[in-house]
TrEMBL record:
One Pfam family matching this protein: TetR_N
Alphabetic keyword roster: DNA-binding, Repressor, Transcription, Transcription regulation
UniProt keyword rRNA-binding present: no
Protein name from the UniProt record: AcrR family transcriptional regulator
Domain HTH tetR-type: 8-68
Annotated organism of origin: Streptomonospora nanhaiensis
PROSITE patterns: HTH_TETR_2 (PS50977)
DNA-binding region per Swiss-Prot/TrEMBL record: 31-50
GO molecular function list: DNA-binding transcription factor activity; transcription cis-regulatory region binding
Superkingdom per UniProt: Bacteria
One example of a Gene Ontology biological process annotation: response to antibiotic
Gene3D superfamilies (UniProt xref): Tetracycline Repressor, domain 2
Amino acid sequence: MARPRTPILSVSGIRAAALAVIDREGLAALSMRRLAQELDVQAASLYSHYRTKEDLLADIANEIMAEVDVSGFATGDWRHGLTVWARSYRAALAAHPNLVPVIAHGPGRREAALRRADAVHGGLVSAGWPARHATMIGASTKYLVVGAAINSFARGFDADVQVYRDRYPNLSQAHRLAEHAAEIDRDSFELALSAFLDGLSRIYEGLGADTGR
């Protein structure tokens, strides 16, 4: 049988190729024409699978969000649920930092993101949090995770010691931060998450006293 003149396309293959472009070159580099070049097909052939680039990006975001673990809420321990969710959420975003603006925009109608939002909200309410607090906790956790994923604190400093030595004595070791960026970023996220959860625990205890729970 003769080989087809053009590669056979699948939605999973299109998503994988698009994500590879985004990871390698950035979100702005992706267009349907650029993606067609990557797949060695005509751009028109992509539109039978995705009407717009936005539809494709939503599908990719949905696929990534499907990796986020919200199973910890099934234990009934809201703190454990938030910990598991926040860590896996950060890991999913950190694996594809160039796609963070798309994912951070919100769940919209994306099924995977909505299922996880539903599990988080339901898990918090079932554990005794008022619905309003559950909404704010979900939002606050997202702020923490997205902030951690979108930028690296440690990599924001120059590696040249002369930049800091004379003018910024309190930053005399800042040139070394980039060497340990992954460790610093991970530990800083864990510190922020722990402080956040400790603060929520105090609020939760106060709510119990007010309601007689």
